[in-house]
Specification:
This protein is α/β, with parallel strands linked by helices. The chain has three domains: 389 residues, Glycosidases (TIM Barrel); 57 residues, Oligo-1,6-glucosidase, Domain 2 (Oligo-1,6-glucosidase, domain 2), CATH 3.90.400.10; 74 residues, Immunoglobulin-like (Sandwich), CATH 2.60.40.1180. It contains 16 helices and 23 strands. Strands 13-12-11-5-2-1-15-14 form an eight-stranded parallel β-sheet. A hairpin with a 2-residue loop joins strand 21 and strand 22. Helix 11 runs parallel beside helix 15.
Length: 568
């Protein structure tokens, strides 16, 4: 297999707004990331994905871009970003950035100019439609499409006297990729950052650039307000691949050392993913899907109690294997538990009660699978979901829209329980650096409230504990980079062991020089597991001793092994 730098990398996503604040204004910034590069290099990660830092009114925390070519003053300056690149590269760390292609802020100059003049060039950069009218003459949206943010996908603009489309926040109008001039503007932006030295892009919401140009209403049953979220109207529509081919031919192919990874979301099939990223004529290097992020039933669980949220281990490993089988030899895979839009993995698939054991188990399970692993900041110290007690603590447009809509059928406690379980704010609390006010994230007042467990869950305390989650991650990453182990992980088949086991996630890589076996108990109780192999060495283990009963391991809560097997 041809190796490229990104196939051997260990990735790490940084949400800059809550990573580290260097100037005490309560907002994480680029100089703050620079100050933590030694920490990241020591952790062993060598690929950073940095979420948006462009000029923005921050309706959606920077994904609503007002100026693609300028760093938002809250994050620093363009010179700060150039210095970040230089400092990261000097440590052997590559940097990719979020490139938001589907939409801008409504405060972008294009939208401001476009709403003024129906015949302007900028008006064509967005998707505008005339209103419909009911029998009383009241205006109605052009169709019944809903957005991902619990509202209509259309908003009426009084100045323009038309509706504009937005599949996310109403302050994030969708761009019209059918317009050739708009596409050229986006390509210029990409070249600007590539010429500045970035090592590639994570392409946000890439699956949604093409729309059903008939704009016909969905046949799905609408909600009480008359709209329905139907991703088939704006997800992986064939025309999208024409846009991406043009992007590749006019921009990406001219920068052969970069890496591109597209966010295609939870509705993409393996077949569709191969269209994006196959080795022969794919348009991107790999794609993020969300198939393996919600296998505990938390998604859509607002009327369930916490004890009813149970990981479907069998299906979880089946999904990883499905993607491996579909892509091995044909396309590359990223592997991950979540990102800035998902709950914390310790709360999702692990246990706060067994934080130490489950966080280490999740590290072992992820880091030795085939593909490029991506960690999310704070994962390496076992950060967990929020402990907020007020809905207003969830400073997020998606969460607040949900709470408003749900208030007619759920009480406040039910809404809070669901948000604590599923809200993307869980991933967006300040990074917990030390046992100090606000977790050491800032000397000021943070824009987002810190999780209350920071006195015991923080980087400083874990750095000084040889048995901590953080030091376990360091050891696991170092093992993955071992040449023999990496060869087995990337080149030898990924084989599930006892794939029908409902509690244990076990898999094997049997290479030419080494065979490694991962065994992970995903339960908070003991589970027996038959060990059908001769063990040469325990490479990684999250308990101090091994418990065996004959040929079976007696796996304790969230116990996990990385074993080297005897090939003799």
């Amino acid at each position: 297999m041809k190796r490229t730098w990104w196939k051997e990398a260990v990735g790490y996503e940084i949400y800059p707004k809550t990573f580290y604040d260097s100037n005490g204004d309560g907002i994480g910034d680029l100089p703050g990331i620079i100050q933590k590069l030694d920490y990241l290099a020591d952790l062993g990660v060598n690929l950073l994905w940095i979420c948006p830092f462009f000029k923005s009114p921050m309706d959606d925390n920077g994904y609503d871009v007002a100026d693609y070519l300028s760093v938002d003053p809250s994050f620093g300056t363009n010179e700060d970003f150039k210095r970040l690149l230089s400092e990261a590269h000097s440590r052997g760390i590559k940097v990719i950035i979020d490139f938001v292609l589907n939409h801008t802020s409504d405060e972008h100059q294009w939208f401001i100019e476009g709403r003024k003049n129906r015949y302007s060039k900028q008006r064509q950069y967005y998707i505008w439609k005339d209103p419909k009218y009911d029998e009383y003459g009241a205006i109605l949206p052009p169709n019944n499409w809903g957005s991902f943010f619990s509202e209509s996908a259309w908003s009426y603009d009084e100045a323009a006297k038309q509706y504009y489309m937005h599949i996310f926040s109403k302050k994030m109008p969708d761009l019209n990729w059918e317009n050739a001039s708009l596409r050229q503007e986006m390509y210029k932006i990409a070249k600007y950052w590539l010429d500045a030295g970035v090592d590639g892009f994570r392409l946000d919401a890439i699956a949604h650039l093409a729309k059903d140009l008939s704009f016909a209403s969905s046949l799905q049953t609408p909600n009480i307000e008359g709209y329905t979220l139907d991703p088939s109207k704006f997800s992986s529509i064939p025309r999208l691949f024409d846009y991406l081919k043009e992007f590749k031919d006019q921009v990406l192919i001219k920068y052969p050392r970069i890496m591109t990874i597209g966010e295609v979301g939870g509705s993409a099939s393996t077949g569709e993913a191969l269209k994006y990223s196959n080795y022969k004529d794919g348009l991107l290097n790999m794609v993020f899907n969300f198939d393996t992020c919600w296998e505990n039933g938390a998604y859509g669980s607002d009327e369930k109690l916490d004890y009813q949220i149970v990981t479907d281990v069998k299906n979880l490993k089946t999904l990883f294997k499905k993607w491996y089988d579909a892509c091995r030899g044909k396309a590359w895979l990223p592997i991950y538990w979540g990102n800035h839009d998902h709950p914390r993995v310790v709360s999702q698939y692990g246990s706060v009660r067994y934080r130490d054991e489950s966080a280490k188990m999740l590290a072992t399970t992820l880091l030795f699978m085939y593909g490029t692993p991506f960690l999310y900041n704070g994962e390496e110290i076992g950060m967990s979901n929020v402990d907020y007690t007020r809905i207003t603590d969830f400073k997020d447009v998606s969460a607040l829209n949900y709470a408003r809509k749900a208030s007619n059928r759920l009480n406040e406690d039910q809404i809070l329980r669901f948000l604590r379980r599923t809200s993307r704010i869980n991933a967006r609390t300040p990074m917990q650096w030390e046992d100090a006010p606000h977790g050491g994230f800032t000397t000021g007042t943070p824009m987002q409230k810190v999780n209350g467990n920071y006195p015991s869950v923080n980087v400083a305390s874990e750095q000084n504990d040889a048995n901590s989650i953080l030091n376990f991650y360091k050891a696991a990453i170092a093992l993955r980079k071992d040449p023999l182990i990496l060869e087995a992980v990337l080149d030898a088949p990924f084989e599930l062991v006892e794939p029908d086991h409902k509690d244990v996630f076990a898999y094997l890589h049997q290479g030419d020089h080494i065979a490694v076996l991962v065994i992970s108990n995903f339960r908070s109780y003991e589970v027996p597991f038959k060990l059908g192999y001769r063990v040469k060495k325990i490479l990684l283990h999250n308990y101090p001793t091994m418990e065996k009963r004959g040929l079976s391991l007696q796996l304790r809560p969230f116990e996990s092994y990385l074993l080297e097997l005897d090939l003799g």
